[in-house]
Amino acid sequence: MGKGRVEAFSDGVMAVAITLLAFNLHAGVRSKVALATQIREQWPSFAAYVLSFCIIGVIWLNHHYLFQLTNRIDRRLMLVNLLLLLFVVTIPYVTATYADYALDTGADARTAVLLYGAVMEGMAISRFLIPLHILRAGLNHVPIPPGQARKLLWRYGFAPLIFPVTTALALLTSAPMMLVFHALVVAYYLGPGMRPIMSDPEEK
Amino acid sequence: MGKGRVEAFSDGVMAVAITLLAFNLHAGVRSKVALATQIREQWPSFAAYVLSFCIIGVIWLNHHYLFQLTNRIDRRLMLVNLLLLLFVVTIPYVTATYADYALDTGADARTAVLLYGAVMEGMAISRFLIPLHILRAGLNHVPIPPGQARKLLWRYGFAPLIFPVTTALALLTSAPMMLVFHALVVAYYLGPGMRPIMSDPEEK
Amino acid sequence: MGKGRVEAFSDGVMAVAITLLAFNLHAGVRSKVALATQIREQWPSFAAYVLSFCIIGVIWLNHHYLFQLTNRIDRRLMLVNLLLLLFVVTIPYVTATYADYALDTGADARTAVLLYGAVMEGMAISRFLIPLHILRAGLNHVPIPPGQARKLLWRYGFAPLIFPVTTALALLTSAPMMLVFHALVVAYYLGPGMRPIMSDPEEK
Amino acid sequence: MGKGRVEAFSDGVMAVAITLLAFNLHAGVRSKVALATQIREQWPSFAAYVLSFCIIGVIWLNHHYLFQLTNRIDRRLMLVNLLLLLFVVTIPYVTATYADYALDTGADARTAVLLYGAVMEGMAISRFLIPLHILRAGLNHVPIPPGQARKLLWRYGFAPLIFPVTTALALLTSAPMMLVFHALVVAYYLGPGMRPIMSDPEEK
């Protein structure tokens, strides 16, 4: 099946999801509270917006990188890709829910952290299935030596292992701390986790 | 007419529609009900989200497959494609309506099931018109033997025959059962209905 | 300037605008009115959705056709294209406003008809400027004989002349009649107005 | 890394953001105020819509222009591009906030102007980083003489210098005047600021 349309459709879904994140930002015009105060009090919305923007940005960067490894897309890769998008599309929802309840002190803040963590986990697992399937089904168009294949699987297998940890840490500390823990994961994927594992096949 | 832009526009519409599905998910922040309870009680929204995501995903997969059969797009195919998109765009609306009324016990739940079924039927008929027109007008760029043409028409002609049945079964049983009946149709299209009927023309 | 990205951006904007049209459709779940009654009473929303979907569909078809005439895009064509998109983006808004007030009997229904008509006129004028500028600046990549150039200008110059008429007729009769008058314009552009004026340059 | 998908994703994000601008336009159907009066009183929404549409339009035109200078995209350019999109996505939010408070006479109008100005500044700085990085890392695929490089940097370095000025002027005069001051910046980028600095590499 053609790779171009799979990428175009995925790009479209991720572009819409990343843009809808800003829908959670809004000022209540009829509120009697000063606008400056409203904005200050909504800081979890702004922080969660930046975090989720970076997360979808990272997913897109990774998607871009992983689909460069192959130019042959089979049915299973198509399904795994749809599964990834199923989770990506819910990110604006869990971001909004998190922002609404992050300053809550009771059980609701923990529920919101769990919900966000569950979607991250689902996303991370389905993202991991992409390189796993490419390697297993031999869909890569340049040979990938075993050492580099292992590196590749570790890079994307790391996320499903770390998100339960960051989520648990946020549950043990506080909901706003989730932003810090998840930001560290993002920092990894925007820094060392963005380095090419093998020489870029399209660069040749 | 150029095939690239027709695919790009259709991909764009389907990507936006599939992403807007998650707009039906939301937690009422000022509600006094615990967030965990709200999420549990909103299970039809989550289930309907997954069903409709899969349905739009299947439509996109089918669209991808059917447009690979041709590289010549005439005016009628353009119109049939717009008709398909007209129904696709309403899927977030009927999904939201279904989710809002699925747990209702009266006539409203049945109305919501009927509304969802009507859009599925309109979508299925217009999707069927795509291979029908490609074959009748000879727009296919590789010859399709009669046996395979018949298979192709049956695969997409099956949906407009089955949606009235699944809708009627849901009306006879209960609104939540609609999810099960429609999920079976989705399972067919993600499983056996995804197998290539002829050797993929773009693979050659 | 590259034509590909201009088309991709325009396709994206039109795809989002056409999908957002369905946002005007919604059922008030807390309403005490039966869902079936709500849907019946909202018929102007459904009718306006279909009309505006067809109008954006036609704009996309025309855009596709007009940009096939050229493969050289200068700054002015870029600006004219942005002007067209400025009006396209407001179509969901004027559609929602029209649907909300169409059954009103007072001045508000007429205001809504005028608003819809004003956006149609702005869209039609900027769409007309596209072939006008292509011909004047000689951006066409195959020669267009004077007779065909005149035909081309008439086809797209017809809309800015007819929308004031359909709008005036709706003001003289009733707001719901606007749907009928505008549907006739759509019928022209989906029928005879879709026929190629010259042999399609990309077909060669 | 492939340039095509970076452009496609950026086009998608900008297309969604520009279309969501019109979401700020709405008429309160249950309001007792005449629709014509509502529309007149909402003039800041319409004016802000046109301004922000032009601003996103300009960003897209500049993006298009700047990415034509290179066909090699490194990690840092990818990150700078995501930073630009992070600000672009918030434009519908600051536009809505500005429109809601522009006619206010107190501190809220000034807060809204500051918020709009802050997003413009963030956008302008990240946009400036694109040519800066292309030149520093030598990603340009045709040589750019020093004189033209200086011109290029001035064109995009001008915006981060001018937005604090236009914002300060609006704070000193009145919130509605912000539309005029920012419109002058837009006029520069749609006029002289659109002229090619060097012969277009794709034209050759």
Q: How would you characterize this protein structure?
A:
The structure is a homotetramer of 204-residue chains. By secondary structure, chain A is an all-alpha fold. Chain A is 72% helix and 0% strand. The first copy, chain A, has 8 helices and no strands. In chain A, α5 packs antiparallel against α6. The radius of gyration of chain A is 19 Å and the shape is elongated. The first copy, chain A, starts with a helix and ends in a 14-residue tail after the last helix. The model of chain A has no long low-confidence stretch (mean pLDDT 91).
Report the total helices of chain A. Answer: 8
Structural class of chain A: mainly alpha
In sequence order, what are the helices and strands of chain A, one letter per element? HHHHHHHH
Per the principal axes of the C-alpha atoms, what is the gross shape of chain A? elongated
